[in-house]
Q: What sequence folds into this?
């Protein structure tokens, strides 16, 4: 369960789950909704997969992700979304039009 | 989360306790032997359901096989509880420790409601693979809807068994289960119809 809470504590991952609620999507399609780098997105996908919230399937050269959340996990996602769980909750306000801005890198202005 | 091995042990212990309760009830009320024989047979089937599939998939435990075994174990745990609690209450009543004939029926009803909710909870996790050729979005939507329907039905049924008068609770539970079944079937039929009428795009 800790893995589920960890996965739901990040707004980017929560947004990924929201997008996957509509339909299964490829890694590229999902990444297009965010302005973070592809390795960062891959790390997010790995956390979600480890928590058992999404599954991946390789079709040809694309990896398609889809939601495999239980009803309880979906309820937890709803709570997390409403109350903004996790250390990154302050970034929630900056998620505009489905885009999550990059975290400021050390040394960047 | 409870690990698979713990659930397996719980299933074994609950089945063993259940068999003990059947034998104790048999000792107290020997004239009801057909009921106790049937209960013993049910526990034997549960133990067989726990052991036989494990022997079949012993070494090559794929993830799907492991998941199926977990589901069987969970079902046996719930079945043992569903039978064990009324058996314990019947025994307690025989010794005059508990009053009220409704208690066994109510507890079984609550457990069945919780079991339905638990089944509904994991329903969205058991979607077929995308490579099976089905429409992933529709399959996902159907499994989510069915999951939510059964969770709400199960919880409502458990609450009904807890708070309503016994006769009304039975009717309410049946109506709730029938409604959930109807909703699931209607959406399943719609899913199948849409899949058949899907236009060919080549």
A:
């Amino acid at each position: 369960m800790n893995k589920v809470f960890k996965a739901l504590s990040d707004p980017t991952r929560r947004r990924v789950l929201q997008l996957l609620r509509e339909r299964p999507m490829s890694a590229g399609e999902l990444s297009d909704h965010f302005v973070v780098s592809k390795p960062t997105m891959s790390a997010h996908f790995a956390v979600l997969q480890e928590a058992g919230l999404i599954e991946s399937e390789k079709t040809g050269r694309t990896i398609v992700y889809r939601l495999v959340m239980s009803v309880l996990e979906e309820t937890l996602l709803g709570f997390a979304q409403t109350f903004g769980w996790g250390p990154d909750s302050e970034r929630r306000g900056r998620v505009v039009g489905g885009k999550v801005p990059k975290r400021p890198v050390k040394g960047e202005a | 989360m409870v690990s698979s091995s713990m659930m397996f042990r719980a299933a074994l212990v609950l089945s063993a306790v259940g068999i003990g309760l059947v034998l104790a009830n048999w000792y107290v009320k020997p004239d009801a032997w057909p009921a106790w024989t049937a209960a013993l047979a049910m526990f034997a089937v549960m133990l067989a359901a726990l052991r036989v599939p494990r022997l079949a998939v012993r070494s090559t435990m794929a993830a799907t096989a492991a998941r199926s075994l977990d589901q069987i174990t969970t079902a046996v745990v719930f079945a043992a509880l569903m039978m064990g609690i009324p058996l314990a209450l019947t025994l307690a009543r025989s010794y005059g420790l508990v009053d009220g004939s409704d208690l066994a029926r109510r507890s079984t009803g609550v457990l069945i409601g919780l079991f339905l909710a638990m089944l509904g909870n994991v329903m969205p996790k058991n979607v077929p693979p995308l490579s099976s050729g089905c429409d992933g979005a529709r399959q996902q939507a159907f499994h989510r809807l069915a999951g939510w329907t059964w969770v709400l039905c199960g919880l409502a049924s458990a609450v009904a068994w807890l708070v309503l008068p016994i006769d009304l609770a039975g009717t309410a539970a049946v109506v709730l289960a029938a409604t959930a079944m109807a909703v699931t079937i209607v959406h399943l039929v719609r899913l199948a119809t849409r899949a058949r009428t899907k236009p060919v795009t080549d």
